[in-house]
Amino acid sequence: MKVLFIGGTGIISSACSVLAVDRGIDLYHLNRGESSSIRPITGVKTLKADIRNPEEVEPVIQGHHFDAVVDWIAFVPEHIENDIRLFRDKTDQYMFISTSALYQTPPEKLPITEDTPRENPVWEYARNKIACEDRLKAEYAATGFPYTIVRPSHTYDKTLIPMQGGYTLLWRMMQGLPVVVHGDGASIWTLTHNTDFAKGLIGLLGKPKAIDEAYHITSDEWQSWDTIFKTMARALGVKPDLVHIPSEKIATYDREIGDSLLGDKTHSMIFDNSKIKAMVPDFSAEIPFEQGAQEIADWYTVNPMGLKIDERLNTLMEKMIADYRSEV
């Protein structure tokens, strides 16, 4: 099977690249060749071009036909329009990486299925992904363009700390300083290791029955945010000082953080993975966050390039905590 990844070196796509190569897929990456070597991948052929510049891409893909094309970096309908023009006659399956953040927020009922309404009144990122999906559905209806939609949830690897604050948050924990948890810490969340996600996505490649379908691919492990923070702290060998602040209050300090909370992470989200399991029988999410948290702690302990404190965020966290504690 010959497959093209547009992008291919990110947190999720790198794990999918490794698994694709391991399974004997003839894998190509289309990117600018400027990504760092944090996630080295061997056995991939690179087509060097900027996907945002169709005139640059066209000669690079000339003469190629792919069994599947996966775009990891399409975020707005204009990106989809570009892909349709470039790959209309060059692939048997076009896979769009969407997001589970587009599901009804807050959800009327759980667990989430692929038929849950798509509506996110808060987060523009999610609304843009909905618009991308709608454009693909319209193109399929009009011309038969063979799309498949994949919706990751909160997917991480050893380099991504899946709580707001990144390394600054880990540093504060290790210094014994308080850290902010949105809400009361009791809402339920789903974290998925990138290598688990990869099994689902690679299993969808080349499947005719996956055309004109959408699949979310997530773990079946559900945890409260307090548990997530405490698990991360345990991996670091520290006891966390958790300060619970309402998401609405956090949003008054930082619009970007607020949108990601109110438009996604504030509300409990658990997923029914029956559809992906039926299509890809060997898919299962096997890595618990306790193991993933230890991978993160180990990586940040020995990798100096990740040890950077965000002074703006650190100051913001201090102010939020001080202000909130003075009010309660």
Walk me through the structure.
The mean pLDDT is 95. This protein starts with a strand and ends with a helix. The strands form 3 sheets. It has a 7-stranded parallel sheet with strand order 3-2-1-4-5-6-10, with helices on both faces. Helix 7 (225-236) crosses helix 11. 44% of the residues are buried. The chain is built from 12 helices and 12 strands. It has 2 domains: 2-155 and 192-217, 3-Layer(aba) Sandwich (Rossmann fold), CATH 3.40.50.720; 161-190 and 222-269 and 288-327, UDP-galactose 4-epimerase, domain 1 (Alpha-Beta Complex). The chain has 328 residues and is α/β, with parallel strands linked by helices. Helices cover 41% and strands 16% of the residues.
Strand order of the largest sheet: 3-2-1-4-5-6-10
CATH-defined fold name of the largest domain: Rossmann fold
Helix coverage percent of residues?
40-55%
Which ranges are low-confidence, i.e. pLDDT below 50, for 5 or more consecutive residues?
none
Strand content: 15-25%
Count of helix runs:
12
Counted beta strands: 12
Sequence of secondary-structure elements: EHEEHEHEHEEHEEHEEHEHHHHH
Q: Characterize the overall form.
A: globular
Q: What is the typical, i.e. mean, pLDDT? A: 95
Distance between the amino and carboxyl termini: 60 Å
**Class based on secondary structure composition and strand pairing:** alpha/beta
How many domains make up the 3D coordinates? 2
At CATH level 2, the architecture of the largest domain is 3-Layer(aba) Sandwich
